[in-house]
Design goal:
The chain is of the alpha/beta class. It is built from 15 helices and twelve strands.
């Protein structure tokens, strides 16, 4: 079995590289595009089942951007399901469920893999479910481009014979602001996505689950891991990958300020204000008209739009006094609670977690990822931390320095073997930090 898995992983890694090349090429001007991607599907009815994980509605879709392993195009379902905001009020969240169509290639019963996407943006057209079918979505009237970062993860696990569920998070696709990196809301979206997948697949809570996420997705799976014992104790979470996790938002904001995706700081600010309106007055006194324009544009755009239209934004250009937004946030009393609420590492996860991080990651700092591992180890969690030693490549440009470790670790390195070992019930305990 091990040799067969290794051969399949080599094939999948080659596919991953090909898909990544295609996505990057698309991001710089591919002519093919989807029509207006956001449809009435993303709007919940006035009355819907408010129980967590309930299926509000589904719609068939096809995943065309997938390797021809088994039936192709891959049949899938777009899903609207019930989750919770940070104040515990019900909310409709969208996602995609891909049922297995080939035999399971790993140990034990067939698992379901819950995929938490990396940063997609804040406009509704940026939802992972929008671009997943073709691998790319373009909204010409907004000059907005969204590439499907999660095609690789969906294709990999589907080819291995697993069920796959991808969440869009709160407010992507669906009405309302996307509360970017909100610890509780993205954890709820992951955990309730697992509950929704159970209903769609018609299987019970004993079915093994894996959580898979990198970057924003790594923060989401890490948050889900530590909230699962409280919020979803019935789920059988066998293993978690939190790759390049956004565990400490202060550190992340400091790192990306002035980098290629510096304007993505706007996603966080917009999300903060939506849930902590007491911040609004302080920000109004801080942000310049140019800064307000950047925040507004961020709320309607995708990460590809930042790369192509607003690269290398420095927040010193967005404030009235020329100091960085990070400096101002440190002085705003109301922001202390915001950052404390979003900090991951204060609760003990029950499931084993693998954290990976690039020592030279130019987007999500290595130190705060390693600190997350230390925080959990201090709570006697089962944690494995692995360092990716990819050297600095074009620092500040994100694609090689941040996504390089994702490709290496996730598709050719330790992640899939680690998760397969968890599915095989191979014993693991304590902490291993490398």
């Amino acid at each position: 079995m091990q040799n067969r898995l290794q051969r399949r992983r080599r094939t999948l890694f080659a596919t991953a590289l090909a898909c990544t090349t295609a996505i990057v090429a698309a991001a710089v001007g591919a002519p093919q595009a989807a029509a207006n991607p956001v449809s009435a599907f993303y709007y919940a009815p006035a009355q819907f089942d408010t129980a967590v994980g309930s299926i509000i509605k589904t719609e068939p879709m096809q995943v065309i951007a997938a390797p021809p392993i088994g039936p192709w195009p891959v049949p899938a379902q777009k899903v609207l399901y019930t989750s919770r905001l940070q104040d515990d009020s019900p909310v409709a969240v969208s996602g995609v469920y891909v049922e297995a169509t080939t035999p399971w290639q790993g140990p034990g019963p067939r698992p379901t893999v819950i995929v938490a996407p990396g940063t997609m943006g804040q406009g509704d057209q940026c939802a992972a479910s929008v671009a997943l079918s073709l691998g790319l979505a373009l909204q010409p009237e907004k000059l907005s481009l969204s590439a499907s970062q999660e095609s690789l993860s969906v294709d990999t696990w589907h080819a291995l014979g697993a069920r796959v569920f991808v969440t869009d998070y709160v407010g992507l696709g669906t009405p309302g602001i996307h509360t970017y990196t909100n610890r509780r809301e993205q954890a709820h979206a992951v955990l309730d996505g697992a509950r929704a997948a159970q209903k769609l697949g018609k299987y019970g809570p004993e079915t093994p689950l894996l959580f898979w996420g990198y970057s924003q997705g790594g923060g989401a799976t890490a948050a889900a891991a530590e909230l699962a014992p409280e919020y979803a104790p019935e789920l059988n979470v066998k293993g978690v990958w939190a790759g390049g996790p956004t565990a400490d938002l202060r550190a992340v904001i400091d790192r990306i300020d002035g980098a290629l995706i510096g304007a993505a700081i706007g996603y966080a600010i917009n999300g903060f204000v939506a849930r902590y309106p007491e911040l609004q007055r302080a920000l109004d006194e801080t942000v310049s008209p140019q800064g307000r324009a950047v925040l507004n544009k961020a709320s309607e755009g995708c990460i590809g739009d930042i790369v192509l239209q607003q690269p290398f934004v420095k927040t010193t250009t967005l404030t009235k006094d020329g100091r960085s937004l990070a400096a101002h946030l440190k002085e705003i009393p109301e922001s202390a609670k915001v950052f404390a609420d979003q900090r991951i590492g204060n609760l003990r996860p029950k499931a084993p977690v693998l954290i990976t991080s690039g020592r030279n990651d130019d987007t999500v700092p290595y130190g705060q990822a390693r600190q997350l591992a230390n925080d959990w180890c201090d709570k006697n969690a089962t944690v494995t931390f692995r360092t990716n030693e990819l050297p600095p490549i074009l620092p500040g440009t994100t694609i090689p320095g941040h996504f390089g470790p994702e490709l290496i670790d996730g598709y050719a390195g330790p992640v899939i073997p680690y998760l397969m070992d968890r599915l095989a019930d191979k014993p693991i305990s304590g902490c291993s930090i490398d």
